[in-house]
Design brief:
The protein has 2 domains: 1-86, Intergrase catalytic core (hpI Integrase, Chain A); 110-166, no CATH class. By secondary structure, it is α+β, with helices and mostly antiparallel strands. 48% of the residues lie in helices and 13% in strands. The strands form 2 sheets. Strands 1-2-5 form a 3-stranded antiparallel sheet, with no helix packed on it. Strands 3-4 form a two-stranded antiparallel ribbon.
């Protein structure tokens, strides 16, 4: 929701999720209390969100009376052209099409979370911080399921180990 995004502070508040329930898209509370909270985001995300706001405003103007979303500032951030929620299956199909167009192997949208965790591991970010970024309730879930060490990081760690032993 736009009212959960603070572009000036570079953070967003998480407390809702869009779920499909019996063929209907509903806004629901998040799964756990650990999922809720204020999350800072990188500057790149702020640029993308500002671009998204401009696109959505353009859509709202173009479709005028057909707009079904709420006024900017309280509606959904990611919507269809008419302000309606984007079905998760549609998002996955669009993401797949973008992977094909970019000439990269097909990824699931959810894989972005694993990539984020792995990049943070490579940056030597503490596991508890990674857990908070991913909004997990348990650090074991973060480190065992989501985070991987890249080959480059593994080689570097073994190089450093070799230096310390030699």
């Amino acid at each position: 929701m736009w009212d959960a995004v603070d572009l000036a502070a570079g953070e967003l508040t998480i407390n809702l999720q869009l779920q499909r329930v019996r063929r209907e898209l509903l806004l629901r509370e998040t799964k756990t209390e650990a999922s809720d909270g204020v999350v800072p985001y990188p500057q790149l995300v702020g640029v993308a969100l500002a671009h998204r706001a401009a696109e959505q405003d353009k859509d709202r103007t173009e479709v005028a009376q057909a707009w079904q979303g709420e006024a900017l500032g309280s509606g959904l951030v990611f919507t269809g052209r008419y302000g309606t929620p984007i079905d998760p299956r549609t998002l996955n199909r669009r993401f797949d099409a973008r992977c094909v167009a970019a000439g990269v192997r097909r990824l699931r949208v959810h894989d972005a979370r694993k990539t984020c965790a792995t990049l943070l591991v490579d940056l030597d970010v503490h596991p508890r911080v990674i857990m908070r970024v991913l909004r997990h309730a348990d650090v074991a879930m973060t480190m065992e399921v989501y985070a991987n060490a890249s080959a480059t990081s593994t080689r570097e760690a073994l190089r450093r180990l070799g230096e310390s032993l030699g």
